[in-house]
Each structure stands twice: as C-alpha cells, then as structure tokens.
Amino acid sequence: MLQPAAAPRHSAPVSHAEMANAIRALSMDAVQAANSGHPGMPMGMADVATVLFSRFLKFDPKNPAWPDRDRFVLSAGHGSMLIYSLLYLTGYQDMTLDELKRFRQIGARTAGHPEFGHAGGIETTTGPLGQGIATAVGMALAERAMAAQFNDKLVDHYTYVIAGDGCLMEGISHEAISMAGHLKLNKLIVLWDDNLISIDGPTSLSVSDDQIKRFQASGWATIAVDGHDPEAVAGAIAAAQKSDKPSLIACRTVIGYGAPTKAGTAATHGSPLGADEIKGAREKLGWPHAPFEIPDAILSAWRGIGAAGTAKSAAWEKLHAALPAEQRAEWDRRLKGDLPANFDKTISEYKQKLAADKPKWATRKSSQMALEVINPATPETLGGSADLTGSNNTKTAGLNPVKPGDYSGRYVYYGVREHGMAAAMNGIALHGGLIPYGGTFLVFTDYCRPSIRLSALMEQRVIYVMTHDSIGLGEDGPTHQPVEHVASLRAIPNLLVLRPADAVETAEAWQVALQQKHRPSVLALTRQDLPAVRTTHTEENLVARGGYELAAAESGAAKVTLLATGSEIAIAMTARDLLQKDGVPTRVVSMPSFELFDAQDEAYQEKTLGPGTVRIAVEAGVRQGWDRYLGIKGGFVGMSGFGASGPYEQLYKHFGITPEAVAAAAKQRL
Amino acid sequence: MLQPAAAPRHSAPVSHAEMANAIRALSMDAVQAANSGHPGMPMGMADVATVLFSRFLKFDPKNPAWPDRDRFVLSAGHGSMLIYSLLYLTGYQDMTLDELKRFRQIGARTAGHPEFGHAGGIETTTGPLGQGIATAVGMALAERAMAAQFNDKLVDHYTYVIAGDGCLMEGISHEAISMAGHLKLNKLIVLWDDNLISIDGPTSLSVSDDQIKRFQASGWATIAVDGHDPEAVAGAIAAAQKSDKPSLIACRTVIGYGAPTKAGTAATHGSPLGADEIKGAREKLGWPHAPFEIPDAILSAWRGIGAAGTAKSAAWEKLHAALPAEQRAEWDRRLKGDLPANFDKTISEYKQKLAADKPKWATRKSSQMALEVINPATPETLGGSADLTGSNNTKTAGLNPVKPGDYSGRYVYYGVREHGMAAAMNGIALHGGLIPYGGTFLVFTDYCRPSIRLSALMEQRVIYVMTHDSIGLGEDGPTHQPVEHVASLRAIPNLLVLRPADAVETAEAWQVALQQKHRPSVLALTRQDLPAVRTTHTEENLVARGGYELAAAESGAAKVTLLATGSEIAIAMTARDLLQKDGVPTRVVSMPSFELFDAQDEAYQEKTLGPGTVRIAVEAGVRQGWDRYLGIKGGFVGMSGFGASGPYEQLYKHFGITPEAVAAAAKQRL
C-alpha cells in the first residue's frame, strides 16, 4: 500500500512522487515544529493535490486575485499544511518558507486552519467541517451567474474542493450536495479524501454511507479512484471537467501516507508524528533532505507550474482589456465591490417619498419595497430565500429565478436549506462581483449560525434578511418565535444586526448593509404591520448612527428616555404619550444597531442615551446586552422566557410588552 | 386524483375514507376558525395517518405515558392539526373538541406547532424542520438500549415519523438518516409525505434528490406507495416492521387532498382554505357535517381504536408487575428520572478526595474523572461524542460502544454529526429511562443550536459536554475558539450554562446537571490545565449557588471584587494577589452559572457581588451579559473580537487577559 506512486508522464526531470513528497515533508515538519497540527491529511492527499495543482488548476501565484482563477477550497481545513505547502512551492509571494516555519504561531499567515485574508490562494476560511464544500457551491454558482451576466470567456473557471469524511458526515454537506446537483453546477469538482479514518478511529465506528450512491441520488457524476495513482486521479479530473453534472471523485487514500507505523491510523490525524516516526517516514518516502529543505530541482519544478499560470492570467487580462469600455467599467466596479455612483441618491429619493407617504407596513414589506428600488439600481444583488419567498418578501419584480443550466436569473430558490444558503452566500460574496442576500425566519438563524459566524470572521458582505423577528409572528408559537436571537447575533463579532422600526429605517438599514464592504448584516424584520415613525425626511442615514433621538421630550427637560428597536418603537412612542400626559417629559431613542451606536463618539452616545434620565429599554427579546445602556436605575420591558402560540396582539399583552407596562416601569424609577 | 380512496377491508361499518375525512374536516375547520395554520399537510396525509393509527400504532389514550407505547413523531410539525385531530378522535382525555376549537390561541393545548407537554400523545416538540426525524432516531436508539438493559419484552415498540419534503431538505436529516442506517435501527419507520410541494411552490424549484436512492445509500429499506391507497400503505408498514433496517415509506400524496381548486398546490400549505374552498371540499369529500361535528358512528369507530390500546397497555402492566422486585424498582426509578439513592453521597466522597488531592487538571479531564465516578453509579447515563471522544474525554472505563445490532453498550460514537447528536439526545431523554450526555467543542454548539434550543423548550435533561471552551484551545485558531458562545448560550431560556473552574467545581457542575429533571445543561470545559482552587471540602454544592465567594479579602474590608468563571478564576486569583500586595483588599467570586445565581435571593446576590466594591469581571469571551453584575463603575477583561491561532499562553497575553490587566482595570476604578 505504501509503494511510491507510479511516475507520471511528466516532462520535467522531477517525478510526481518527489513533488508530492515535498508536500508531505513540509507538512510533517511544520506540524512537528509547531508541536501541534494535522499531518495525516496532507500526507494522504499529497498525490491528489499534486495532480490537481500541477496538471489542472488555473492559478497565478503572482496574481492571486485574478478573477477567473480556478477556486480551490480545502474543506478539510485541518489539513492546512497541504495548502500552505502548495502556496509556498508554487511561489505565492506572501507564503515564504519562514511562514511555514511559523505554522500556528501568533501573527503567522499559517494559522491552524486556513484563514481567508491571511495569504493569497486561501479562498475561504475552513476548519468547521462541511463549510468548505457548501461555500464552494456558492462559488460555483457565482461563476455561472457572472458568466451569464458578463460573458462565458471572461468567466470560465472551475471550483475544486478537497473534502474529508467529516465534511460528508455534517448535515450541511447534504444541503450543499443537493443544491449543487439540482442546479447542475457542473464546474464544481469535489475530491473526497476517502481514507476510512476519522478522529475516533475507523469511520466504520460511526458511518456506513455509500457516498457514491448518495451523490448520485443528488444528481452528481461520480467516480472512485486510488488516490495514490496519479494517472487515475488525472483521468478522473479530466472526465469531471467534461461532465454536465457536478462531480465527486472518491480518492481512496492512506492517511499519513509514508509514516512507517502510524499511516492508515487516526494517530496521524491531529498530532505531530514525533521525531522517530518522521525519521522513518523520510526513509520510507526516500526523502533524505533536512526539515524545510526542498531540493532546487523539485522547488523549481513546482515554481515552473506557478509561473505557467502567469501566462494564463496575462492572456485573460487581454480579454478583459478588450471588453467594451462601459462593460469593463461595470466589471471593474463590481469586482471592487463599489456600489453604483447614483446609489445613495436613489435611496435618498426613495426615503423622501416614504417620509411623505408614511406607509404602515410590516418591515418585511418595507424591505421588499426597498429592494424594489435597490435591485434595479444594483445589478450585483443576487437574492434568495430558504423556501420562504412569500414570507421573507425577498423576490422583487423582474428578478428571475436561477435555474439548472440557466444562470441568468438573480433569484435563488434555496429550498429548505438555511445552512446551505448561508454558506453558499459566503461563497458568492467571496467569489466577487455579486452581493448575495437571502431570507428565512429570524429564529432559523440558529440553523445557519456556523456560516453566519464565518461571514463575520471572513468580513464578507452577506445580507441576511431575517423576518418574523419576535413573538409578533403570533400563532406559529415558541418554536418559531425568536426570543434570544437578536441578543445572540449581537454577540457575534463583526456582525451588523439591524432592527429597523419602519419603512424609512428599513431603507436606511438596507443602505447601511450594502455599504459594508467588510461586514455581513442581519436585518431583523417584522411579520406584523407597524406605523410610520420617520415622517420627516432627513438626508442623513440616521440608522447609520446605530441609535438616535427619534422623539424629544415635548416640554421641559426629559425625565425619561425610552430605548427601543423595531416593532417596539411604536410601543415606546405610545408610552411616551402616556407619560407626557402624566406630566413626565419623555424622549424616545431608536436603537436599530448596537454595533453602529457603539462606534459613535462617547459624547454622542452619552447625549443620545440621555444623561440623568430614567432609562427603560423595550425589546421583544431577552434583556441580555441592554444593561450597558441602562445605568443603575434602568429598566427593561421584554421577554424572559420562550414565547407562546396565539394572535400577536394578545401575546404582547400576555407577556406584558405594552405602552402601559413601559410607562409603569419608568414611573416606578422616577 | 381526487377520487375517494378505495374502501379498506375494515370490519367496522365506518369506512376508511370516512375516518380519514374526519381528520381532514377537523383540520380545515380548525385552521379556518383560527384564521391561521396549515391545512394542506393533514388533508394530504389523513389516509396514511388513519392507516397508521387504526391498524398499527400501539398506544393507549387513557395512559399516554405508557412506557412501551409506540412513539409517533410528526416531524412536519406545521401539520399539527393532524395529530390534534387524531388525539381527539382516539380519545385522549386532555384533547377535547374545545381544544380543537381553540387552535392557536393562548393557553390552548393546540399550539401552532405540537408542543411537548401540552397534551398526552405529543411525544416531542416539532416545527423547526428536520428536528422530528432526528429526535426520533434518539427514541429508536433509546428503545433498543432499554431493551438491552432490561428486557426486550418490556421494551418492544416502534418509532414512527411523518416527515415532509422540508424535513428531508434540512441538513440534520442527513445526520439522522446516516446514523440510523449505520446503527440499523430497524424499528424506526419514516413515512415521507411525498407531495411535491413546498412553500415556494413545486419542489422542482429547488430540489431534485432521488430520496429512495438516498435512503438506500444510508442503509435503509425503502418502498414507494400511493399515500391515498390504504392497503398499499398498510402493506408497506407491515413490511417495514419486519425489516432489519430502518424503513422509508415514500407516500405520494396530494397536499390539501379534497380541496376542489387548491389541492396539489402550495396555496393549501400555510393558510386557511377560505369558506368557499371548504364548502367545495365538503362536497368533494362527501362530508356534509357541520364544522367540528363528527358523526357518532365515525367518532366511535375512532374511539374503539383508542380503547383497544387500553387492553394492550394493561397486558404490559402485567409484564411490568412480574419483574423481579429489584429490577422493577430500578425500572421505576429510572422512568421517574430519580437519581440513585446514594448518588449525592458518591459525589460528596469524590469531592472530599479532590479537595485533598488538589489535581491540576484541565476541566475536560476533571469531567472525565467525574464521569469515572458517575457512570458506574448511574446506569442510566448514555454517553457519546461527535467524533471527539479523546478530546472531549467523554468515554470512561467500562463504557462499551453501542453497535449496529448490539445496543447493550453505553457509549455512542455519534460521528461528525453535532446536530444529529443533539437531536438524538433529545429523543433519548424524551423516551425515558436514560440520561444522555454528548460532547463536541464548545464552538460547535453553533452546529447543534436548534436542537439545544429544543432541549430547553422541552425541558429535557440533556447534558452537553462542550470542551475547548475559549482561546485556551490555542493553535486551532479562531474557527475553533468560542468567543461569543458562552454568552449566546446564556441567552437561551431554561438552559443551564456551567463553566467550572477546577476539579471540584466540575464535579459539582455534573451533580447539578444530573439533578435537573427539567432542564438541559451545557458544561463549558477547558482544553488547558488549571490549578485547583477549591481545596477545602464543603458538603454543600457551591456551584449550585451559581456564584459564591471563592476567596475573601485578606485583610480589612474588600475594595475590589473580581468575578470570573472557569479558566479565568486562576487569573482572578493571581490578580487578587497582585492587588493585595499593593494594599488593595480583594475578593474573588466564582460565577460558574448565571442562571443559578440569578435564582438566589436578592440579599445573597447583593452580598456575593460585594456592595460598594469595584467589580471587575474576567472571562475569555465577550462582555455581553456581564454588565448587570458590574454596576456603574464595573470593568470587564475579556474578548472583543475573534481569537487567533497560537499557543494559548501567548494568546492570553496577546488579548490582554492577564492578572496584570485585571489588577490595572481594578486600580483604574478605585
């Protein structure tokens, strides 16, 4: 089993085995140096990766951002030394030998798992299993959509994935596989590291799936090969490139290939091999070189592959240069992530109309109406919903669906696949040229939380349109009523949570979300109708402040400040009337986004929160997160447990979230 | 297509069609009365459900808690009127006609989605799609485990599931199906409502999976039938009962069967049919009766089926009574959910030993050592891990694995299926007789959050053993480092979050978690070693207080109170030394559980938090949730963004979570 793989038909004097062994050696040595990491996967998949990178992958180490490069996703992200080795060997300039030596150290580009943004060639952050394959589905979809929107010479690349057993056990893999098969994303090619091992031991401890049959059931082309036979792997990839379906290549490999006693066992998965085992592996593999030493011939064979890519990217630049000027400018704008020049003006005019019309819409409806303005103005939006289109109000006039084989549409029916949708949106955003938004119920952010977290960690402009955002959804009951969700989303770093109060705030929230080049946003929107509260037009986007005085005290200095978001703004406004009728001057502060408010200067924050006033926060969710704004005398009116099934007006009364309760809470503290 | 189904070979004068139409009528009428709900599914699946309940399901409406009843799980929970109708028709005493008329009203047993605990016969809360089928896997596993642990006459029931297209699109379904197939849970029978419709329209908009092939790939027996042909359905169920694999029965149905213009369309899914359509359906179905009126003959046919179950449960009671006294007492204890009589003593003795030994263990190791004591003492625990056994330290000596066909073991290799594991644990807990615990990394609570939420909503004793609970996990980097997770778990109502600081606190945390009959717990445990801080034995479980003074100020009245949890207790203790060396009397309060602390009386809370002292909280996570304990002068030392890859000691310094930083934060506020 551990015989060196057959020599490839390769014109260089360097053999396939030597090139693959360079990956193996760097991987085991870097893990050993770090005294932590995962050598087994890179050693097992070195042959497959060598074939992919040396014979198929279209990439240019000198131009890692080349828009039409093939995307390579290491879904089994724990095998990060595989990609770091390849990036170094092929000549990515920011992946130096020194970086490999600093594997897993603070500040190194070579983090424990591949982190997007740390180095060129890392297309997405992976590690949480299944995310890579699901993100790749979005990349493959974005490729087809961009080809349809521009032209299929300018955009014509593959998306390759290396996935492990863990990726395929995760539920998200089902959503991804099912979606890719349905949409016939035939330029998506998954190389499965079929090594029969997971952390607990042989995969037979926990799984008996026939993966070939499973992928076929979802409309994939499949083939199984010996992952240590380079010609077999190459033949499979060549066939996959020609398929009219996405392809699974099951690569039977030996984890830790080359390790004399540990190969083929879970012992190689997540720990350094140890000095003795590494010594033995060097012998077994015929790799006498010192740690981190790559013989010149081998390095230059690898570098030659990288250099060949530079010619390809140069050829593409000519295609790009030959585009009609207007189309080229549009391409460049979209790839840079800039919004159209007239975007802000469009929103401002729309806001002006809203301030005059004063519509009493649910904010999900306000969101749709904003999108009716936004989508025609920004051709880069790609909308969708996880089978709640009519509830999330995410589809606007003129958005046609993306269909199997026809990717010209701008709306994706994601199916009941919240997690797959979120990961695909990450892939769409990472791909470039498109801004994805997608909807489900806010309570189901739980289903896609691991991908939302990655949107935030990778700083991607993904917009989550999350409707039915409280007990205000009514009869569907506690399983569908978010209570802790707004708080728990606010807890995620770099995630913008926006809970607008009316049509104007919703338009502003969309504007803010679209303006974030490096941040995902969640829009929390109501099912139920709300009154208009922003009835005077402001040129300034007030939501962008995070919090602002919506209504001043009517007469005299304010004694009470009511802080609220979204649907509870209306309750706060009525409570203000009650209090003022009783002679208590009361202000209302709208707080659509904690994150944006916290970014204001201290003086603005202090002034807005109303120094010296009694502060009461009102939100139909848990209190967590509000205390920092409330001060010692502050109060909170909201939820302290799960919701219930019933008409929403009755639920608000049942749970005591009423103007009367707010007024009483304020008075108690005066 | 809408021809009435063929009359069954049924001895009663009432036809199958009449019995099924009773479900259809009640469902459409209750939805209409509520002016909200989902009539399409109950009308489409009425034939299948009638066959299941009238010819196969083992249940006793007079004794809904009969331990050996078949479990029926309505995974497609939006079709709740299906089960409410059946419970009423078969004679469950708490499901009156009045309850049906109060469908979706506050306080009714008939919530929008089936809520566990609202009425007998509702085996689990469903609605979030895919949860039911995954929970049912746990029930089916528990059935086999209890049969192995007691005897297979006392425990010998099926678990039936009705699942929809949405359930099968959700990723969790993959984890559930794969696990059930691997474990050969042959008494699990899934009836798939194959109606070709989801909310957005025809399923062909978003999915092309060959479900039969997919289930076969995971080791299931499969059959496809006309869901309106009662004999075909009956034949399929009878065959499934005899299979040595779990079974999928694909039931091709017409959603909203009977509705004259809307049947077979998404229009019947989630809205009342409307008066005209209902009138037409009455004609089409040959159901001339008034809303909520069930003719006596039909009702008594249904009631007869219910009554037949009473005889079966009585027969089972004899089996139970015939058990040897000791075994019967053990059975009764486990079914009641009581812990063994000597449990508290066992823990106390173990704590005494720990206080003397002062081990410097990681709390994940402390957890394993606690389990080494607990598992022999409590035969009802059923452990497991999502492929991180050696990292979560969840397997103790003498716990053998559950294997396909051999369910005598007490340890489940759940595979890389966090979500499936969590849902299965809900099913195990709901089944009764077992206390499930399962491990993964704390960061992956995100992967199973929808099921954790259901543990809390259903008040189930499920114990989540979540290790690697902060940047303290080190080199694996930000994708594996929880930052917001402790806060976001604390946000979930009725979930106990326990973050112990050393071996004694970990033992106490386990004791508290096991004592919760109506609450799930998350144990947040470190990867890294920690010093012993509880070195004097206390009979009292101090963790049960949620927060307590761990170290008083050394001399004089305390000026500073340091609040911390888990691994940051050691940092707080060192900070206390630094401060006291500088003449600042400082206390340390350990806060292993906010929920338990908040349940203490106000005087205790106030005293513990240290009135008048400067308070600094230290936790290697986000600040959210701490402010309410900190007062106006309070400070926080922790994380404000994502982590990084590196050795953990360096990460703590890098992010400024050090004794020096804590001492400085305190001094700044003095």
Give an overview of the whole structure.
Chains A, B: It is an enzyme of class 2 (transferase). The first copy, chain A, is an alpha/beta fold. Residues 1-11 of chain A have low confidence and may be disordered. In chain A, helix 20 (568-581) packs across helix 25. The N and C termini of chain A lie far apart (80 Å). The first copy, chain A, has 25 helices and 18 strands. The first copy, chain A, is 43% helix and 12% strand. The first copy, chain A, folds into three domains: 20-313, Rossmann fold; 342-524, 3-Layer(aba) Sandwich (Rossmann fold); 546-668, Rossmann fold (3-Layer(aba) Sandwich), CATH 3.40.50.920. Chains A and B meet through helix 6, helix 7, helix 8, helix 15 and helix 16 of A and helix 6, helix 7, helix 8, helix 15 and helix 16 of B.
Total domains of chain A: 3
Largest interface: A-B, 110 and 111 residues
The end-to-end distance of chain A, rounded to whole angstroms, is 80 Å
Q: Tell me the helix content of chain A.
A: 40-55%
> What Rg of chain A is obtained from the alpha carbons, in whole angstroms?
28 Å
Oligomer: homodimer
Give the strand content of chain A.
Answer: 5-15%
Characterize the biggest β-sheet of chain A: 6 strands, parallel
Q: What CATH architecture label of the largest domain in chain A applies?
A: 3-Layer(aba) Sandwich
Put simply, the count of helices of chain A is 25
Mean pLDDT of chain A: 97
| CATH class assignment of the largest domain in chain A | Alpha Beta
